[in-house]
Prior knowledge:
Elements: E1 2-10, H1 12-16, H2 22-43, E2 52-56, E3 59-64, H3 67-84, E4 89-97, H4 103-117, E5 143-145, E6 158-160, H5 162-169, H6 178-184, H7 199-202, E7 211-218, H8 221-234, H9 239-270, E8 278-284, E9 287-293, H10 294-315, H11 317-323, E10 334-341, H12 347-368, E11 376-381, H13 390-396, E12 399-401, E13 406-408, E14 414-415, H14 425-435, H15 442-451, H16 456-469, H17 472-477, E15 484-493, E16 499-508, H18 510-520
Amino acid sequence: MKYLYGASIQGIQGFIFETNKLKEIAGASELVEQIATTMFEGIVPSFEEKNLIVGAAGNIKYLFDQKEDCQKVVKEFPKKILELAPKITVSQAVIEVDNDLTYDNIMELEKSLITQRKLAFAQRELGLMVSERARRTGSAGTHRLPYGRTSSTDTELFVVDSGQYQKINYDKKGRGHLLLDKVLGQQDTLQVSDFTIDINEIITKNSNQWLAIVHADGNNLGKMIQQMAEKLKRNSHNIQDAFSTFSKQLEEATKAAVQEAFYATIIKMQGSNFKVPMRPVIIGGDDITIIIRGDFAMDFTARYLKAFQEQTKEKLATLVHDFGLDDFKEGLTACAGIAYIKPKYPFHYGVDLAENLCGYSKKVAKAINSNNVPACLTFHKVHASFVTDYGEMIDTELTAKNEQEIVQFNYGPYFQNQQADYATIEDLKGWVNELEKADSPDAPLREWLETLHTNKGTAEQLLNRIRNINSTTTTAKLKLKTAISERDTVKQLQGKTKVKESKTEKVTHIFDAIALANIESKK
């Protein structure tokens, strides 16, 4: 008898982005990275790599040979996490495995974990009412630290809670830098110390004071797993080896794609003699979340999407061949969302928006081709003080409604490869390059966008004037002859039977081009 153990880590995002202090975010993200890796491995008696089915991004599945070892982990693992990350909770489940591991065993474990995740957890950080509170979190204070100094001579001690204390001091305890090592790879040029823990070292006057939060997620991963499972049922393949290999190779592909994007954009464009203007937050499975300086974000994300498909094609080639997964011969694709925010804007809102934008990208891409989902990204530059659902933002912020017509300003998603009625990332970068020129019609086009909200006729006159006073080359490169275009959008409706609903909408690419040009401006 064997025992399949599963753990699901909850509350990760809330723990990491509890405050806007980059030092705390960096410490929290490194701590979370180690929960499912070195921390878990250290608790398991006689840990064996071959028994680890999944160990990344807040998910753990491990096959125990001994009941006593499994019982030890069930008892001690949540306690260990509670000591280091008191606001993170762990759902655990165990099922018995008679002989060899099967796909049905994994599905049974997953159902048990879903049930456990629905259970309420007791609040552990409330403290007594008389407790002094940490200013940034409102939780009961546990330590006083010389933290948040306003000058080099300021010796005031600040109250922090137990979670903040662990985040702030985590790097000092010599526990390594697994997350940063995933970015650096095997090279000797940069060191962990080259990554900043100060937001002021990411933002500079030349970078126009914009930060970006990038979130990317792989497409059709569930479909690939299902196809693998069907093949495994019909053949004598070892499901433990297959899923363990799949998990590890996917992790390697994601890591390699991040490294390629990192060195090809940030390091190549600015060199290595500076504090790296980014911090990785999550790199696990097919997910990444990155905080990065605004003017690097688009190039980084575009390169990552391309590299992710190339790396999964290479790293998963053996599995694709062994299980006849023809749909994945060219690798997995990914979609992404980029939220551009100001430094003082709450990071947790920015992360929510980036995930929302990524979801929007996936929705449109899957409507185009659900079998081979094309890679794409959607971005948004935050101006409002509060961020709602992106669909609501399109209606309230990104739509010009006058008495004659309705024009939407959300031209994305922008695709890696050409798709009907949509632009590519390369198209977007071309418009941005044109707008960055000294003689570009940037200001008149801003005025035209404003006029679209009030009067169609006046807007048309202004656009004709812009076309007439600018060169033919500028007009062509900015696509001013079709500054407003029509496209058919397809919405995938949810239900027992999938129905596609089409509608025609008027859209303009000018708003996005100006927004990104402002962020990437070197002026």
